[in-house]
Amino acid sequence: MAVKTTTKKQISSLEHIRGKLPPLKEADIVLIRHKKVKGSFLRTLLRITLRKITKSYWDHTALVLFPKNPQKGYFYNQIIEAVDPRGIEIHKLDKYLKNPEIYDIGVKRIPGLNMDTRKRIIAFMLMNVDAPYYRLKLRRFLLAIFSRKFSEKLLGRQRFCCSGFVQKAFYEAANWDQREKIIFKKEFLSPIELQETTTPADIARSDKAVWIYNEH
């Protein structure tokens, strides 16, 4: 006798609280809040401070790499993210969905992205797997603004903070005349500043992407 699978068993613990996750697409933006932070006291303090300074509910971002599609053999939503301190890594979205006591998530989508652009974003993401995590020091940030040579050298190192990685993925994938449509930060001086100073708050508040799940 066949056993019926209930809808309740098909959704994650977080979805029981926030509602069922809609079908995701490549390059959807996942915003994450750490309710509890594993690791050092300093890392916990940094996340709390980031949320307080930016007045944001969210403290981390990721991108959907391969959305769930059983017909293609993708049985999980896979995401890619810059993880402090290890760097760019690929994980199942379930790592957040299964632990609502530790995490909360929301999802935004840039409307109008065609498949060619999504493929370029995917290519950028995969090309940077294992790139180290990087938080730009003030001294280096100033040098990058005023020295083109130093800026190019710094960009060549391919180090990313979480939201900087998300922003640069879109920035690099877009045609030059379309980039203003995918810039989340309202004010910036240069591409290096855009990459290194974009925050989860900038992405959450930006009208360049629309909420499709759990708006905050």
Task: Please tell me the CATH architecture by its name.
Answer: Alpha-Beta Complex
Gyration radius, in Å: 18 Å
- Tally the beta strands: 6
Identify the overall geometry.
Answer: globular
**Widest sheet: strand ordering:** 4-3-2-1-5-6
In short:
The chain is α+β, with helices and mostly antiparallel strands and 216 residues long. Helix content is 38%, strand content 17%.
Summarize the structure in words.
This protein has 216 residues and is α+β, with helices and mostly antiparallel strands. It has one domain (23-213): Alpha-Beta Complex (endopeptidase fold (from Nostoc punctiforme)). Helix content is 38%, strand content 17%. The protein contains 10 helices and 6 strands; from the N terminus they run ααβαβββαβααααααβ. The protein has helices at 7-10, 13-18, 41-54, 94-97, 115-127, 138-146, 148-155, 162-173, 191-197, 200-205, and strands spanning 29-34, 60-66, 78-83, 87-92, 103-109, 210-213. The chain has a 6-stranded antiparallel beta sheet with strand order 4-3-2-1-5-6. Strand 3 and strand 4 (87-92) form a beta hairpin. It is globular and about 50 Å long. 29% of the residues are buried. Residues 1-8 and 155-159 have low confidence and may be disordered.
Structural features:
alpha+beta, endopeptidase fold (from Nostoc punctiforme), 17% strand, disordered N terminus
SSE topology sketch:
Layout: H1 7-10, H2 13-18, E1 29-34, H3 41-54, E2 60-66, E3 78-83, E4 87-92, H4 94-97, E5 103-109, H5 115-127, H6 138-146, H7 148-155, H8 162-173, H9 191-197, H10 200-205, E6 210-213
Antiparallel strand pairs: 1-2, 1-5, 2-3, 3-4, 5-6
